[in-house]
Design goal:
This protein has 790 residues and is an alpha+beta fold. It folds into three domains: 55 residues, no CATH class; 435 residues, Alkaline Phosphatase, subunit A; 171 residues, Jelly Rolls, CATH 2.60.120.200. It has a ten-stranded mixed sheet with strand order 8-7-6-5-9-2-10-11-3-12, sandwiched between helices. It has a six-stranded antiparallel sheet with strand order 20-30-21-26-27-28, with no helix packed on it. It has a five-stranded antiparallel sheet with strand order 25-24-23-22-29, with no helix packed on it. It comes from Parahaliea aestuarii. This is Arylsulfatase. Keywords: Signal.
């Protein structure tokens, strides 16, 4: 064949393939009809074959890119932490939330919207559109087990909404709390598949774990840990808001035709309840009447505002919660301050959300932004127990704090000197009109959260209330429908589990639309229930403050409620409807089998121990780890477990002329942990027991300049968990100091503070060696440290 014939043949083939210059241009159109969006990423067309020799005889092909369908809105999902249905003024509560109020006036309030009753499960379900067990998050990441549905590893077959919209042309950013990464995948070794920037987000600024110190947070920018700004009055909520505002303004400046998808998840109002004093002062005296009165007043406001039906009953508080009038006066004094701090935290959070919305308004994008403001990923937390806590870590270590010890801290409550949580009595009040709280998946106090949806371009008339049953798994399909995007059947080469939620778009402009999400199971740590066509069957297996001596699952008593006539689940009709109850109990088992809920595991704190939970452990069976200078920010679930056992720390260091000071190796925070350090040249070991008691073993003499091998031997007493031991410090083979540590923390040092070599990264474990990574930095040279356990 001649060359000219070959060229002609090639042109013919290219034309038949649909890639002539005109056809190629058509193929690059951004309309949905031109793309197969069911397989993501969208396949790029083959490039045109050119036959011209000289580029001047051609026209360049048009740019090919995937863009969203015309009119696709921006999306902003706001998720506040641990905030119950009866807290915000928007849903009848005692705390003014003007930002939420303003959105509700122009949008819609949903009073029948549900979560999973706990942090990680709600977040994964929200951003995937699948049930939490489908996504392997039957509980929080730190209590994952080896079983399907609870393994803590989000599977590739459950692609997140953020990745779906990113691959359809959105810019995506996540700010604040994550808490969706398997606990053993949070080290420098990764894998990073389940970190935000591998879960669909171009930008992430926030913290990875379940909570953080709002004054001294553990922040990541993408996958890189960074130190927070050291500015007076720093607070993480303000910082993350600044970051979100900067990102969205820059994104719209650079690509104004490209919509954004933002996930804005505050660490507030989860414990620790950290808030500036000026916000606490706004609520002085406003909770003096106590939790019973506040709960009843909220209930009456909710009825008057139409947030709940007029026939709603107020169930009695749980039996374990004392009546306010029966409390001693000193208890009331403490509890009032706890509520003032929490209310200030709520109001402070709503204020900064308002700043973000104001920024979006200022760049002219508010009308075309679909906003979901979810007031709580579960009900208000009752994990503070009967009296609250100066240090929330006491809950995770099975230690009951005493009112007499907390009263002297009232003026510091909410400050950097506390890590506080309020009493469970307030949780019940802020969950009005329901009986139970966070963790109780079988009561609406644990799962029903206030939701406001705002979208001027998509909601014809604002100010309404929607009462159709809905669930966090409904948000993802709502976004896809609003953006005119199909549900993908495969993402990044993996066939997808179908979305299990139901789009809520049908309710936006039809208040009386027939309910479409008609069946939903609930389960968390043994509390379980099933909603179906207006009926709710449930059993209360455990209260949030119960972590031991639980009854057998088989002995749980089931109750039955008809929700259309019983908004608050106050009228158990099981006795008169035995057949319906049996039918729903059978349906629960069908759904539980289908979605990998079984077998049910009602253990809570025990499951924080990987060995007991059966989940992977980064360190595994290794008995030692070698550490080097520069290794800091090691989260607790990726560090060798030194709890409840004997250990030896051997540090090879150089001491400069004049002596050394600073941290050698620390783990934990000012609220619990241990520190091997030098102060004024003297090696020392300090064990900080929950910020309540401290044990210091320190050499009487400073070390001379030169190489030194510092050894700290801890001889654990044994005989159970949380026992004491003897700490011995030796240098170059010579014993310098020995002392007792009367008790140790059995379960957890910190939710987000870390193990650090050569510095103490966040709040100081030990006294007298400084605050933060600069002041606590070791002034000598660390060659290596070996931590060995028995």
């Amino acid at each position: 064949m001649s060359k000219s014939a070959q060229v002609a043949s090639l042109i013919s083939v290219v034309a038949l393939a649909g890639f002539s210059c005109v056809t190629f241009a058509q193929a690059t159109s951004s309309t949905s009809a031109q793309f197969d969006r069911t397989h993501l990423p969208v396949s790029e067309p083959d490039p045109r074959h050119y036959t011209e020799l000289d580029v001047r005889d051609t026209r360049p092909p048009p740019r090919w890119e995937v863009t969203p369908p015309d009119g696709a809105p921006n999306v902003l999902i706001i998720l506040v932490d641990d905030l119950g249905f009866g807290a915000t003024s928007t849903f009848g509560g005692p705390v003014p939330t003007p930002t939420l109020e303003q959105l509700a006036k122009g949008g819609l309030r949903y009073n029948n919207f549900h979560t999973t009753s706990l942090c990680s499960p709600t977040r994964v379900a929200l951003k995937s559109g699948r049930n939490h067990h489908t996504a392997n998050t039957g509980s929080i990441m730190e209590t994952a087990t080896a079983y399907p549905g609870n393994s803590g590893r989000i599977p590739n077959r459950v692609a997140p909404l953020a990745e779906m919209v990113r691959l359809n042309g959105y810019s995506t950013g996540a700010f604040g709390k994550w808490h969706e990464t398997a606990a053993w995948e949070t080290s420098v070794s990764g894998p990073f598949d389940r970190w935000p920037t591998h879960q669909g987000f171009d930008k992430f600024y926030g913290f990875i774990g379940g909570e953080t110190d709002q004054w001294s947070p553990l922040i990541f920018d993408g996958t890189k840990r960074i130190d927070p700004p050291r500015t007076p009055g720093y607070h993480f909520t303000e910082d993350m808001t600044d970051q979100a505002i900067n990102w969205v303004k820059a994104q719209q400046s650079m690509t104004p035709d490209k919509p954004f998808f933002m996930y804005f998840a505050t660490g507030a109002t989860h414990a620790p309840h950290h808030v500036p004093k000026e916000w606490i002062k706004k609520f002085h005296g406003q909770f003096d009447t106590g939790w019973d009165s506040i709960r009843e007043d909220t209930y009456e406001r909710q009825k008057a505002a139409g947030v709940i039906p007029a026939n709603t009953k107020l169930p009695p508080r749980p039996d374990d919660i004392a009546a306010w009038d029966d409390l001693p006066e000193d208890h009331k004094t403490l509890f009032r301050r706890q509520a003032e701090v929490f209310a200030g935290f709520v109001a402070h959070t709503d204020h900064h959300i308002g700043r973000l919305l104001g920024a979006i308004e200022s760049i002219g994008e508010m009308d075309n932004t679909l906003v979901f403001y979810i007031a709580g990923d579960n009900g208000t937390s009752a994990e503070g127990g009967m009296v609250g806590m100066f240090n929330e870590m006491t809950y995770f270590n099975g230690v009951q704090e005493q009112v007499k010890d907390l009263l002297p801290l009232i003026d510091k409550w909410g400050s950097p000197e506390t890590f506080p949580h309020m009493s469970a009595g307030w949780a019940v009040a802020f969950d009005a009109p329901f009986k139970w709280t966070k963790q109780v998946a079988s009561d609406f106090g644990g799962t029903r959260n206030g939701l406001v949806v705002h979208w001027p371009n998509g909601i014809e008339q604002g100010g309404g209330i929607r009462s159709q049953f809905s669930h966090v798994i409904d948000v993802a399909p709502t976004v896809l429908e609003a953006a005119k995007l199909p549900e993908p059947t495969s993402v990044n080469g993996t066939e997808q589990v179908p979305i299990e939620g139901t789009s809520m778009l049908y309710t936006f402009n039809d208040a009386d639309a027939k309910e479409r999400h008609t069946t939903q199971y609930f389960e968390m740590f043994g509390n379980r229930g099933i909603y179906s066509d207006g009926w709710m069957a449930r059993t209360i297996h455990r209260a949030p403050w119960q972590v031991a001596n639980l009854p057998p699952l088989e002995s749980d008593v089931w109750e039955l409620y008809y929700v259309p006539d019983d908004f608050s689940l106050a009228n158990n009709v099981a006795a008169a409807n035995a057949d319906k109850l049996a039918e729903l109990q059978d349906l629960f088992m069908v759904e539980a089998t289908k979605y990998h809920v079984l077998p049910i595991d009602d253990r809570t704190i025990e499951r924080t121990n990987p060995a007991l939970a059966g989940r992977p452990d980064l360190i595994g069976d290794r008995k030692s780890i070698t550490l080097y200078e520069g290794m800091d920010g090691m989260m607790e679930n990726t560090f060798i477990n030194v709890k409840n056992r004997s250990l030896t720390i051997t540090a090879e260091v150089d001491v400069p002329e004049g002596g050394a000071s600073g941290a050698i190796l620390v783990q934990g925070s000012r609220y619990g942990g241990w520190s091997l350090h030098m102060r004024e040249g003297k090696p020392a070991y300090e064990y900080n027991w929950l910020g309540l008691e401290r044990y210091l073993v320190e050499s009487p003499d400073a070390l001379p300049a030169g190489k030194a091998t510092i050894v700290m031997d801890f001889d654990y007493d044994g005989g159970g968990m949380g026992k004491g031991g003897t700490a011995t410090i030796s240098v170059n083979g010579k014993q310098l100091a020995q002392g007792r540590v009367d008790k140790t923390q059995p379960n957890v040092f910190s939710a987000d503070e870390t193990a650090d070599v050569g510095l103490d990264n966040q709040t100081p474990v030990a006294r007298g060696i400084g605050y933060g990574p600069v002041e606590t930095k070791f002034t000598g040279k660390i060659h290596e440290i070996v931590v060995a356990v028995e």
